[in-house]
């Protein structure tokens, strides 16, 4: 069976950290660039989510497309046994044009001065390392087993974090300097492909996230991704 999952998160609005200034803000790395992921109680972000699932099973090609709106709110803080300050957040979701939000995910963030850590569903990922510098790389899964299976898809599970590593991409030009892109180039093999790219904006945090997760039974070593997967669906 072949399974693929694409998720795209696009930042729509934020209730805080918004500026109407048109003044150019060239990227100058400070000692610690915590402003690329500000944390404060009450911060609220809204995302538009597009999810496309391709699946082949029992000789059929199945395609599911889902659009959602997601709202994330930082609700409070707590200190752990080491005295580190964690920020709790709650996520809500709804279908476009729906008036009702439903709670579906909760988690925490920690900025320990060197790393930004996210804990969700008992999994801890290192989202960022400080200071942010071009071409800096690190293992996001250093706090978990990258073989962990998550995201149940049509009765199956996916190794979402397998082989994951992160690298900060160079800013393409001065106009883009207030955004930092993190490429999470993951497992690329004969039957598996994983790719993620995050974009963070100064004073806001995460504004865009793209995931591509492909599994294939096509063993043709000459076929490249995503063509290998497309042949499964033909």
Please provide a written account of the structure.
The protein is an all-beta fold and 234 residues long. The chain has one domain. It is built from 1 helix and 14 strands; from the N terminus they run ββββββββββββββα. Strands 7-6-5-4-3-2-1-14-13-12-11-8 form a 12-stranded antiparallel beta sheet, covered by helices on one side. Strands 9-10 form a two-stranded antiparallel ribbon. Strand 12 and strand 13 form a beta hairpin. It starts with a strand and ends with a helix.
Average pLDDT, all residues: 75
- Ranges where pLDDT stays below 50 over 5 or more residues in a row are 1-32
User: Could you say which overall geometry the principal axes of the C-alpha atoms support?
Assistant: globular
Q: Report Rg.
A: 19 Å
Briefly, what is this?
The protein contains one helix and 14 strands.
């Amino acid at each position: 069976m072949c399974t693929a999952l694409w998720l795209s998160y696009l930042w729509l609005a934020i209730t805080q950290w918004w500026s109407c200034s048109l003044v150019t803000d060239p990227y100058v790395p400070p000692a610690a660039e915590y402003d690329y992921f500000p944390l404060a109680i009450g911060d609220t972000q809204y995302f538009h989510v597009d999810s496309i699932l391709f699946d082949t099973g029992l000789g059929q090609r199945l395609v599911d497309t889902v659009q959602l709106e997601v709202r994330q709110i930082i609700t409070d803080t707590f200190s752990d046994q080491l005295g580190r300050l964690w920020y709790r957040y709650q996520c809500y979701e709804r279908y476009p044009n729906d008036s009702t939000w439903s709670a579906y995910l909760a988690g925490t963030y920690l900025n320990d001065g060197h790393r930004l850590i996210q804990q969700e569903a008992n999994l801890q990922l290192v989202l960022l390392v400080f200071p942010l510098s071009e071409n800096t790389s690190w293992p996001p899964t250093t706090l978990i087993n990258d073989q962990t299976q998550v995201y149940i898809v049509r009765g199956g599970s996916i190794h979402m974090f397998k082989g994951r590593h992160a690298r900060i991409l160079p800013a393409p030009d001065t106009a883009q300097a207030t955004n930092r892109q993190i490429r999470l180039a993951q497992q690329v093999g004969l039957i598996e492909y994983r790719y993620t790219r995050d974009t963070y904006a100064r004073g806001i945090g995460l504004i865009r996230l793209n995931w591509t997760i492909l599994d294939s039974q096509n063993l043709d070593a000459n076929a490249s991704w995503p063509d290998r997967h497309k042949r499964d669906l033909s």
